[in-house]
């Protein structure tokens, strides 16, 4: 033979590579994942949850620039590099936006920034209290590339840190849904009879309850918080996985390779896990891609309702909740920016799911 026969995995990979939007979505999702992991290293505001507030410069337009006076604190930051990189820096310094300043005889004279065209309070600072290194860092110019929110926080930093919740909720929710859905779906499809009847009854009852209401009920039962939302969303998304797994296993268990495995005396667990599941994962993978998008939308809805990620934690849904009224107040970008982020990530997952469906379709 002149060449090697390609496996189904290789053929599916080649078909996926030919889908431009599928590949583009994959790299976009990969980029968002890197941003979510290293958000604090990329964000201009390195404080925990990007929660450094400056009320005097609230609701400023993108590209706003201001001089920032940073006053060192006697409190020493004892965080290690790992903690700062992945969980943000505990801010011990005081930042004061200033409109103008000058140095006279070892004294810093400055005027605090005031909103709405007002003149801020004039103050002075004795420079002899600080070392030469500290004096060099006292006044810096800070640019807010996406503007500031109604609390004077950097919108760009909040968007970057907020990507962490929206991205990782997809992984946690899909993991929980696959774990529960595959287990129950496999048992129902393989054994049938009373086992199938009981599991299908549970599936139908869960299916009949609106997803958002069920998530709200579970969230209220577990309490408000970061991980509670992850678990609540995951516990409501297993139904589709279970139904598809059940249907696929009902068809697959009559195949000859399953009959041969039974004749060889293999246990039911081995037949299901080693022989059946690897052959029915294509539709499961497609459902997982769609569930990623659904999890992001559900979390955003919960945060918008105030029962998702709690302040001061950054979340795209919470950012929309805080600023949706600014759409009619002349500053719509405060709600549009996080909304666009949600839309982009959801669309990427949907496009990648469609590409995977086409690549794994054996009939095409």
TrEMBL record:
CDD domains: TM_PBP2. Pfam families: BPD_transp_1 (PF00528), OppC_N (PF12911). Its main location: membrane. One of its GO terms (biological process) is transmembrane transport. GO terms for cellular component: plasma membrane. Residues 163-353 form the ABC transmembrane type-1 domain. PROSITE patterns: ABC_TM1 (PS50928). Keywords: Cell membrane, Membrane, Transmembrane, Transmembrane helix, Transport. It is a multi-pass membrane protein. The chain crosses the membrane at residues 20-43, 165-191, 198-220, 226-245, 280-298, 333-356. It comes from the Bacteria. It is found in: Cell membrane. InterPro entries: BP-dependent_transpt_permease (IPR050366), MetI-like (IPR000515), MetI-like_sf (IPR035906), OppC_N (IPR025966). Belongs to the binding-protein-dependent transport system permease family. This is ABC transporter permease. It comes from Formosa sediminum. The lineage of its organism: Bacteria, Pseudomonadati, Bacteroidota, Flavobacteriia, Flavobacteriales.
């Amino acid at each position: 033979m002149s060449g090697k026969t390609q496996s189904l995995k290789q053929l599916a990979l080649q078909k996926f590579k030919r889908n431009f939007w599928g590949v583009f979505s994959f790299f976009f999702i990969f980029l968002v994942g890197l941003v979510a992991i290293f958000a604090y290293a990329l964000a201009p505001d390195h404080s925990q949850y990007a929660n450094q507030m400056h009320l005097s410069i609230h609701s400023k337009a993108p590209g706003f620039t201001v001089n920032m006076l940073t006053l060192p604190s006697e409190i020493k930051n004892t965080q290690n590099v790992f903690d700062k990189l992945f969980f943000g820096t505990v801010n011990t310094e005081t930042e004061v936006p200033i409109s103008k300043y000058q140095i006279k005889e070892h004294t810093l004279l400055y005027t605090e920034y005031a909103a709405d065209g007002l003149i801020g309070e004039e103050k002075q600072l004795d420079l002899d209290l600080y070392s030469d290194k500290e004096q060099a860092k006292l006044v810096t110019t800070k640019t807010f590339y996406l503007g500031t929110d109604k609390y004077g926080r950097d919108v760009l930093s909040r968007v970057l840190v907020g990507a962490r919740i929206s991205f990782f909720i997809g992984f946690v929710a899909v993991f929980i849904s696959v774990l529960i859905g595959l287990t129950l779906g496999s048992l129902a499809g393989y054994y049938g009879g009373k086992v199938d009847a009981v599991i299908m009854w549970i599936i139908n009852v869960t299916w009949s309850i609106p997803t958002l209401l069920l998530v709200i009920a579970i969230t209220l039962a577990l309490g408000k918080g970061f991980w509670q939302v992850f678990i609540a969303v995951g516990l409501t998304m297993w139904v589709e996985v279970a139904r598809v797994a059940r249907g696929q296993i009902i068809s697959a268990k009559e195949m000859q390779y399953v009959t041969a495995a039974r004749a060889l005396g293999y246990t039911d667990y081995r037949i299901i896990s080693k022989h059946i599941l690897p052959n029915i994962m294509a539709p499961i993978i497609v459902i997982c891609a769609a569930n990623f998008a659904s999890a992001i939308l559900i979390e955003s809805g919960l945060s918008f309702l105030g029962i998702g990620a709690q302040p001061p934690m950054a979340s795209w849904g919470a950012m929309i909740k805080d600023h949706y009224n600014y759409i009619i107040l002349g500053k719509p970008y405060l709600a549009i920016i996080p909304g666009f982020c949600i839309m982009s990530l959801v669309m990427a997952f949907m496009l990648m799911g469609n590409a995977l469906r086409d690549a794994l379709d054996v009939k095409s």
